[in-house]
Amino acid sequence: MSLVRWGIVGCGDVAEKKGGPALYQAEGSELIAVMRRDLTKAEDFARRHGAKRAYNTTEALLADPEIDAVYIATPPHLHCQQTLQAAAAGKHVLVEKPMALSVAEGEQIMALSVAEGEQMIAACKAHSVSLHVAYYRRYWPKFQAIKAALEAGELGTVLGARLQLCTLAPASGWRVDPAISGGGHVVDVGSHRLDMLCFLLGDITEVHGFAANRLAHHSAENDTVFSLRFASGVLASACFHFHTRPSRDILEIFGSDGTLTCDPFDGAAFTINGEERRFETPTPTHLPFVQALVRGEPGHVTGEEGLKVTRLLEAVMRNKI
């Protein structure tokens, strides 16, 4: 396995706690340089995480000849342009989710959002670099075990699934500014859960739903529901409500021979037909994902795979009321 040498664009909380440490803890992976507009903060991040250099512009980092790949950990409204820049510089790209703006006000912006993802994919292909999207939970041991259980037929024929995320989320900040995030908290945390349905149950052929913000605490949607039909025939529902108590975060999968439950979704265990199975949650969270990427394992989360969730979100946001 050859060494992959990384640069980070954007040194906020996600890079600090999740994605950044994985880049130098994974075998065959090294963190070379980081970029943040505030050079003092970039230098502090570099010192604490063992990077050789710090920059305060994307262009300067991409000009570093020692870097093979970049991890883009900025807010979604910057993902497309920074991916295009990285591809043109000949750098492989790992971009945080969602890969591009999911939706904003107005039909014209909605149409442009999926186009952003398609533009990112095309640019990386044109410059012969890879593009991956950080839906890292796919590589957690728990979810790998769930997929294996489904493929082994432990639930019999899978018939349906249900996602529920109800919590009291912050009503301010960039995550609820559609111009920056592409939507509300469903874009930020709900996207991971929708991606997990795709990972576990396969391609989705039909989606319907609604999005609303009945309490109008901010300009993004706060309440979103999805109805999903999979190519396999599985029917699923997903609901996300971000101004409610108490918190519930559940995934259930129903089969002809039993039920599988993750309660909570991010917990260390799941139950299948009443039997609990426990797995250690990776620390940092991105480590198994980055390790699989560096090793070149097949079936990784490509740009095409990451765009599937953007399409789902966009289809439902069209019915925002």
Helix content: 25-40%
Order of helices and strands: EHEHEHEHEHEHEHHEEEEEEEHH
Tally of distinct domains? 2
**SS element count, helices:** 10
Short description:
The chain is 36% helix and 27% strand.
Short key terms for the protein model shown above:
321 residues; alpha/beta; Rossmann fold; Dihydrodipicolinate Reductase, domain 2; 2 domains; eight-stranded mixed β-sheet; six-stranded parallel β-sheet; 10 helices; 27% strand; globular
Describe this structure in words.
This protein is an alpha/beta fold. The protein has 2 domains: 4-133, NAD(P)-binding Rossmann-like Domain (Rossmann fold), CATH 3.40.50.720; 141-281, Dihydrodipicolinate Reductase, domain 2, CATH 3.30.360.10. It is built from 10 helices and 14 strands. The strands form 2 sheets. An 8-stranded mixed β-sheet has the order 8-9-10-7-11-12-13-14, with helices on one face. 47% of the residues are buried.
Question: What's the structural blueprint in terms of helices and strands?
Answer:
Layout (H helix, E strand, L loop, with lengths): L3 E6 L3 H13 L3 E7 L3 H11 L3 E3 L2 H5 L6 E4 L6 H10 L3 E4 L11 H20 L4 E3 L7 H11 L6 E11 L9 H4 L3 H17 L2 E9 L10 E8 L4 E7 L1 E13 L2 E5 L6 E4 L2 E4 L8 H9 L7 H15 L4
Parallel strand pairs: 1-2, 1-4, 2-3, 4-5, 5-6, 7-10
Antiparallel strand pairs: 7-11, 8-9, 9-10, 11-12, 12-13, 13-14
Helix pairs in contact: 1-9, 4-5, 5-10, 6-8, 8-10
